[in-house]
Design a protein that fits this description.
The chain is α/β, with parallel strands linked by helices. The chain has helices at 21-33, 71-81, 86-89, 116-125, 145-149, 155-178, 180-193, 197-202, and strands at 2-6, 42-44, 47-54, 57-64, 90-96, 104-107, 131-136. The chain has eight helices and seven strands; from the N terminus they run E-H-E-E-E-H-H-E-E-H-E-H-H-H-H. A seven-stranded mixed β-sheet has the order 2-3-4-1-5-7-6, sandwiched between helices. It is globular and about 45 Å long.
């Protein structure tokens, strides 16, 4: 069993916001790997869950509905129910204001970097040793951080972030099929080599 978690906030008010790119990535991953007839999520672990499999291995996709700041409640409940080794069986997709739109960064562990969703996961799991894919949403600049991440993308940001979400889905599939090291080698290098379009526009 592997658990892929996308972070975000539930409800129509938050659709298309920067904080919800994790939700968007998991939704796209579901459409890629799950048969259409099975793409009906169930309510479990305080979130929406979709069970599927890839390469003969069971995969559970999870979107916590606890709101971002309490994401750890849902993740920890699922991880403990299935007795997962979070270092190898958990992958979290999340927004990151420290990365420019159009880029992603995969890490095997690390600090939450001020992200409340990651902080709560770390607190509830009692560990920061779990893989995460950070999806860049640009720095907020003079806009208060809370307002920025809960706001929608500017027109010039949307195209690069669409690319980044699709790349994050590819990276997640790589992790599922080939492991974390391969995903980091392939997708961190690609992200570093490419200049995000939003960075070009803002230069």
């Amino acid at each position: 069993m592997k658990l892929v978690v996308g972070l975000g906030n539930p409800g129509p008010l938050y659709l298309g916001t920067r904080h919800n790119v994790g939700f968007e990535a998991v939704d796209r991953l579901a459409r890629r790997i799950a048969p259409p007839s099975s793409c009906i999520p169930k309510s479990r672990f305080g979130g929406l869950v979709l069970d599927t499999e890839i390469a003969g291995e069971k995969v559970m996709l999870l979107k916590p509905l606890t709101f971002m700041n309490l994401s750890g409640q849902s993740v920890a409940e699922a991880a403990r129910f299935y007795k997962l080794e979070t270092e190898t069986q958990l992958f979290v997709l999340v927004d990151d204001i420290a990365l420019p739109c159009g880029s992603i960064r995969i890490r095997s562990e690390g600090s939450a970097g001020g992200h409340n969703g990651l902080s709560d996961i770390e607190s509830k799991l009692g560990s920061a040793k779990y893989a995460r894919c950070r999806i860049g949403v640009d720095a907020p600049g003079r806009i208060p951080q809370a307002d920025y991440v809960l706001g929608k993308f500017r027109e010039e940001q949307r195209a690069p972030v669409e690319d980044a979400i699709n790349t994050a889905v590819d990276a997640t599939l790589c992790w599922l099929q080939s492991g974390l090291t391969e995903a980091m080698n392939r997708f961190n290098r690609r992200s570093a080599d490419e200049t995000p379009r939003s960075a070009e526009l803002n230069s």
